[in-house]
Amino acid sequence: MNRPTEYTHKYTLTAGESNACGRMPLTLVTERIIEVATEHANALGIGYAALITRNIGWVLSRLSIEMTRYPIINEEYSFTTWIESYNRHFSERNFAIHDGSGAIIGYARTVWVAMDFASRTVADLTAFEREAFPTADLPCPIPKAPRISPLPPEAENESYTFRYCDIDFNRHVNTVRYLELILNHWPLEHHDRHIVRRLDLMFHHECRFGETVRLLVSTDGDTSLCELAKGSERAIGAKICWAPLS
Amino acid sequence: MNRPTEYTHKYTLTAGESNACGRMPLTLVTERIIEVATEHANALGIGYAALITRNIGWVLSRLSIEMTRYPIINEEYSFTTWIESYNRHFSERNFAIHDGSGAIIGYARTVWVAMDFASRTVADLTAFEREAFPTADLPCPIPKAPRISPLPPEAENESYTFRYCDIDFNRHVNTVRYLELILNHWPLEHHDRHIVRRLDLMFHHECRFGETVRLLVSTDGDTSLCELAKGSERAIGAKICWAPLS
Fold it and tell me: Among A130, A132, B86, B117, which is most buried by a count of CB atoms within 10 Å?
């Protein structure tokens, strides 16, 4: 089996995929990260088809994205991914995002946990060969995800109940939906004037169909701390660093 | 310029893209239809880049999808599209959906209107060459979109206000968001037991950021009529034919 240490997928941003500013939405960046991670894992023999034979699946645990700019309509771009490290419970997978001219426009870091679908707890990957996890020592010059402190009691507060289109094949809420819920906190005019320079998204507890969460947001300068809470428990934590859209 | 009369794009359904039943969601079928239409139009020189020079863009006006089954996780599938007819205001574009073995699993019909972005009214495509619209006489054995009658006063009723992630580059609500809003009317258990055999979706008036719509739904047997209404005006009409999930 040929096991590529890195994997690249090229895309062109279609008009229909673009946001209101004609740029690649952060939600699509997140979808592409999940897609190329999936494709690389499949190529390594550690994808959905291999893991499901042991009732295991990859679940995204942490996601950090830093973009200097976002592709515009009809622009080519590519995502390159590689494994930075792994152990028998999780794997750290990084990404470099290039524009059509080959210039770097962003990086991302992810942490994936192997989940046992029967027990809904962390699985053990020891049964899979070490060779299936070839690590690469490529540069990913962005910090790892920070700890997100508890939000202040005066944080803004709204609630949302998860519905059919929010749910994925794991029967929990899709990663991208959490992000949409957070980004929807701000009006269109804010997004017309700002980009997300950096996003950190931490998945603590999965949410399911019919559950209601509260979105808490606290903004200080160009940084917003966000939390999706189920009762008193943090399900999702997020930190957004905004930059003016130039 | 080489102008292909038909265009095919092959895909594999990833786990992350699948719905709660491990199948291709109807929303993704819709995204693929828009994507391959875009790619074919680009190849014909009548895509976003060509039309925007005259401040024109394609806007989906009607969409009908009939599926006998939906691809499952890791299954290959393809969308083939061709132009059935066109005139100086709109174009009828059809689709055949094949599974990995080459068997037909669905068809779709779309009507696209050329919109003048300055006046927000129907544009005139006379300036584009006839050769840019090569029609093909391929089979698409599903009926055209029906008229959707007014919903009864006792229709179920809920409201929704459009937010940032609902808005696309035309600065109106994305096609897929309307469909999500409609599909979210039903609980997960309904979708676990049924598939959408046929969808008709009619776009009468565009919706924008911050607007509130009422979703009306009236179900009789295996058929649901739906409407997204702005005040007394129908913005979107939909008809869904359900089939038991076997």
Answer: B86
- Helices A26-44 and A175-183 pack at an angle, to 10 degrees, of 170
| Contact (Cβ atoms closer than 8 angstroms) between residue B62 and residue B203 | yes
**pLDDT digits over B54-80, tens only?**
999 999 999 999 999 999 999 999 999
Q: Which residues of A touch B188 (CB under 8 A)?
A: 164, 167, 209-210
Are B71 and B99 a contacting pair, CB within 8 Å? Answer: yes
- pLDDT tens profile B199-233: 999 999 999 999 999 999 999 999 999 999 999 99
The residue of chain A nearest to residue B163, with distances taken between CA atoms, is A184
Size of interface A-B (CB pairs under 8 A): 105
Please name the residue ranges forming H helices in B46-174. 48-52
Chain A hits for B38, Cβ within 8 Å: 14-16
Give the C-alpha distances (Å, rounded to integers) separating B9 from A170, A194, B17, B79. 27, 35, 17, 6
CA-CA distance, A225 to A235, in Å (whole number)?
14
Residue range A171-209, pLDDT digits in tens: 999 999 999 999 999 999 999 999 999 999 999 999 999
User: Min CA distance, B188 vs chain A (Å)?
Assistant: 5
Measuring CA to CA, which residue among B185, B180, B187 is closest to residue B224? B185
Q: Which residue has the tokens 């092959």?
A: B10
Separation of alpha carbons B102 and B87, rounded Å: 32
Nearest 10 degrees: Cα torsion B128, B132, B32, B30: 50
Q: Rounded distance, CA A110 to CA B41, Å?
A: 36
Flag whether pLDDT at A246 surpasses 80: no
The Cα A37–Cα A31 span in angstroms is 10
Of A16, A22, A74, the CB nearest to B34: A16
